[in-house]
Design brief:
Number of strands: 8
Strand content: 35-45%
Oligomer: single chain
Bound molecules: coenzyme A
């Protein structure tokens, strides 16, 4: 069975989350967890960590992750980062379940008005399928084309 869990850095699953981030996201752009922490100082402890956990007979396995940086860059906004699904489990709806969990937390309990991400070109379609909108032109980040994409809190009152 697959569950989406919110974990802290003290959780035993955190090491698996970091391993997944290195395998799917960081190594491809010449980074590891140490250099990521240098690039984003203080972020790791401010993130809310969401993991997709498969209950394997030999123990729980993290097969997806997504991080929420609440109230960034200003109060009321938030950033989704480090969205990754194990290559062997992509296309099964795991990424969607992770983003839904992040949105529920951001727009429900935290009451944020909007969350955004820096989407890689290969992932534009994923966020579009989930109802996110383009919010910038193409820019380079880690040498890859990206666009900022956003989704607004559906409950937010528009004046
Ligand atoms: C992008 C990623 C997180 C998607 O996760 P996933 O679990 O494979 O996606 P899901 O199965 O939940 O897909 C949800 C929907 O998005 C669509 N989709 C998924 N990836 C897509 C892509 N790259 N392009 C277009 N559509 C995509 C699916 O077809 C599905 O559509 P449906 O609801 O009509 O069936 C995953 O492929 C991944 O980790 N990729 C490598 C790392 C990466 O690029 N991360 C994003 C950095 S910004």
């Amino acid at each position: 069975m697959l569950t989406i869990r919110s974990i802290t850095r003290q959780d035993p699953l955190y090491a698996q989350e970091c391993d997944l981030r290195e395998r799917v996201l960081l190594r491809e752009v010449g980074l590891d967890m140490s250099s990521f922490k240098v690039l984003f100082p203080d972020a790791e402890e401010k993130f809310e960590h969401f993991v997709a956990v498969f209950d394997h007979p030999s123990g729980p396995r993290v097969v997806g992750c997504a991080l929420l940086l609440p109230n960034y860059p200003v109060p009321g906004r938030g950033k989704l980062m480090q969205m990754a699904v194990d290559p062997q489990r992509q296309g099964e709806g795991i990424g969607r379940r992770l983003v839904v969990a992040v949105e529920r937390r951001a727009f429900g309990e935290l009451g944020l008005g909007e969350i955004f991400c820096h989407a890689r070109d290969v992932a534009y379609g994923f966020y579009e399928r989930l109802g996110w909108d383009f919010d910038s032109e193409v820019f380079l980040e880690a040498d890859a084309p990206h666009r900022r994409m956003t989704i607004r809190n559906p409950e937010a009152v528009t004046a």
